[in-house]
Design a protein that fits this description.
Layout: H1 2-11, E1 14-18, E2 23-27
Antiparallel strand pairs: 1-2
Length: about 35
């Protein structure tokens, strides 16, 4: 049950890479502060 919840939350996550210094960024709109 918890795993399914986490997978659904990760499906809503947005992430990418900053080309200049190869740093990753991400956000999860369903969680405040994440």
């Amino acid at each position: 049950m918890r795993t399914e919840y986490i997978h659904k939350a990760m499906d809503m996550a947005k992430y990418g890479i900053i080309e200049d210094n190869h740093t990753y960024w991400g956000e999860m709109p369903c969680f405040k502060g994440v």
